[in-house]
Amino acid sequence: MPDSIINAYTVILIFLLGYFFKRFKLVEIDTARKLSYVVMYITLPCAILAGTQGAIDLEQSLFFILPLAFVISFCFPLVGYFLYRKDPERCVYTMLNLGGFNIGNFILPFMQTILTPDGFIALCLFDVINAFFCFGGVYCMALFFNRKGFDNGEKIDLKKILIELSKSITSYCCILSIALSACGVVLPKELMHPIEVIGHSNTFLCMFVIGVALNFAISLEKIKRIFSMIIYRYSLALIAALIVWFTLPFAPMVRLVIVAICFAPITSLAPITAIKSLPQFAEDSANLNMISVITSVVIVTIINAFASLMIS
Is-contact 226 287, C-beta < 8 A? Predict the structure, then answer.
């Protein structure tokens, strides 16, 4: 059995394990929220640093991923603006949930075992820009585009965006990993060993947390709205993935990574930002996030299953 399939069903089993732990009341949702801080500030940064390879020959062409990531990350919420620009509150909700990709807590664990050094650096480069949008960029963009019809009293300016972005430890680790690789710096074994041990727990912990956070109690009246958002999100993902795969001159592994990122779930920060700006849509955003995770599990599992054929 291919390693990609083994990795995919292992992740799904962890995902279901977390869900059943919650169902049998062995773990509470509050515990999952607390564990999410462990993921964001400890295991995920260590997983990124553990993938650093000092001997990588960082090709200049890979830096084209930065503007590519910016265009993709900017266009997704922009489509949301044009869909609902006459309804400011629905527009903000749509932009928040179309923008941002769950890369560190989803794509990295799913693809960690098949990533080549170039693929890992491509993922980090994309995530540097993605973090810009997840940690304040999409939120500020949504409020700015709808400032005439939707005002929550916040001043949206460069200072606020920089403050939001400064909270992203993941971004710092991505930048550090890229810098170390570009300079050919290899961290000492005494430092790397604890980082690797902690980083290896990231896959289990983040998927377990997502499983615990699942809630299948969705009212019928909300299904239509959630389903339409899923159609918008993954239609955009399909268009972006086809353009990336058939038009960009990157190595197959690099293109595969970017395609997988396009199908990543909605960022887990979307419900949090919805609570800040649109509390009436907070539950919808959480349910949408859950459906997005399930959808992405299926799609990225298929991508993993055919990875060996796609990069050969």
Answer: yes
Going from the C-alpha of 22 to that of each of 192, 214, 245, 285, 297, the distances in angstroms are 34, 9, 39, 20, 20
> Sorting pLDDT into bands at 50, 70 and 90, what band is 151?
low
In 3-state terms, the chain is what percent helix, strand and coil (to 5)? Answer: 80, 0, 20
Find the farthest-apart pair of alpha carbons in the chain and give their distance in angstroms, rounded.
58
Partnered with residue 101 across adjacent β-strands are 266
Among 214-218, 224-228, 267-271, 274-278, the range with the most confident prediction by mean pLDDT is 224-228
| Alpha-helical segments (H) within 26-87 | 29-38, 44-50, 65-84
> What single string gives the DSSP state of each residue in 192-222?
HHHHHHHHHTHHHHHHHHHHHH------HHH
Query: What domains can be seen in the chain, in order of their start residue?
Result: 3-306 (1.20.1530.20)
On whether the CB atoms of residues 284 and 294 are closer than 8 A, the answer is no
- Centroid of chain to Cα 13: 20
Q: What is the mean pLDDT of residues 49-75?
A: 77
Cβ-proximal residues to 192 (8 Å cutoff; 6+ apart), any chain: 50
| Residue pLDDT, tens place only, 248-288 | 888 899 999 999 999 998 887 676 666 666 666 766 777 78
- CA–CA gap between residue 213 and residue 304 (Å, rounded): 24
Q: Measure CA of the first residue to CA of the last residue in the chain; give whole Å.
A: 17
Q: What is the pLDDT of residues 1-52, one digit of tens each?
A: 555 566 667 767 887 898 889 888 888 877 877 787 788 788 878 887 887 6
| Three-class secondary structure of residue 101 per DSSP | strand
| 215: its two tokens | 């809630």
> CA 253 to CA 272: how far, in whole Å?
33
Please give the single-letter amino acid code of residue 272: I
